[in-house]
Write a structure and sequence with these properties.
Length: 207
């Protein structure tokens, strides 16, 4: 009898323990959804408030304090690389003293674990630690923007979210006419002839 009980117990353990081990129940990193309502349509983004707390938190402050309302997408960088369309769009406060907040610390992708994939939101900056209220949205993956000692800019740029709705709007902005005479230096010819207005930036309503 004892042998049969032991065998039954062993069989029970063999069935239940692996099942428990296969269910890690690990929650996904927390994000906050934001709508960028523009004159060409709405772009919905998920901000990585857990994995990139400094950068995502900074962007949320711009949203909550209505500092992005009335700003524009002003730049379309086109890359002639497969797949098409490729490049990025850029928008934000453009160093408007009435809108910008103090610069934030740089959060490289080597720390956050995020990457510059299709639809990634990334902070515009000069040197690391100078980002404030301007950002880019990528049309396709750009690993050269990640933090990597082999990349032209080893510290890379700070990814803080991704587009979860409205990539068609991103692509339409990217395809909008550019003015060949606008812009300075290496950005000359990348400025939109008619910037696209961000009429409102707001946290998305919970479903």
């Amino acid at each position: 009898m004892a042998t049969r009980i032991a065998a039954a117990l062993a069989a029970f353990v063999s069935l239940t323990v692996p099942a428990l081990a296969q269910d890690p129940a690990t929650p996904a990193p927390r994000t906050v959804a934001v709508e960028l309502q523009t004159t060409m349509g709405t772009i919905t983004v998920a901000l990585e408030v857990e994995r990139a707390p400094i950068t995502a938190g900074n962007f949320l402050r711009y949203v909550d304090e209505q500092r992005l309302d009335g700003t524009v997408f002003y730049r379309s960088m086109i890359l002639d690389w497969e797949p098409h369309p490729n490049g990025l769009i850029q928008g934000g406060t453009q160093f408007d003293p009435a809108r910008i907040l103090p610069p934030i610390a740089h959060e490289p992708t080597s720390v956050t674990g995020l990457t510059h994939g299709r639809g990634a939101l990334s902070m515009a900056r000069n040197e690391p630690g100078s980002a404030n209220g301007d950002f880019s949205i990528l049309l396709q993956a750009q690993p050269s923007m990640d933090a990597d000692p082999d990349n032209p800019d080893p510290l890379g740029y700070a990814v803080f979210g991704t587009v979860v709705g409205g990539m068609d709007v991103v692509e339409a902005i990217h395809a909008a006419p550019r003015d060949p005479d606008k812009g300075e230096g290496w950005m000359k010819g990348e400025m939109l002839a008619q910037p696209v207005i961000i009429t409102r930036a707001v946290r998305a309503a919970a479903e």
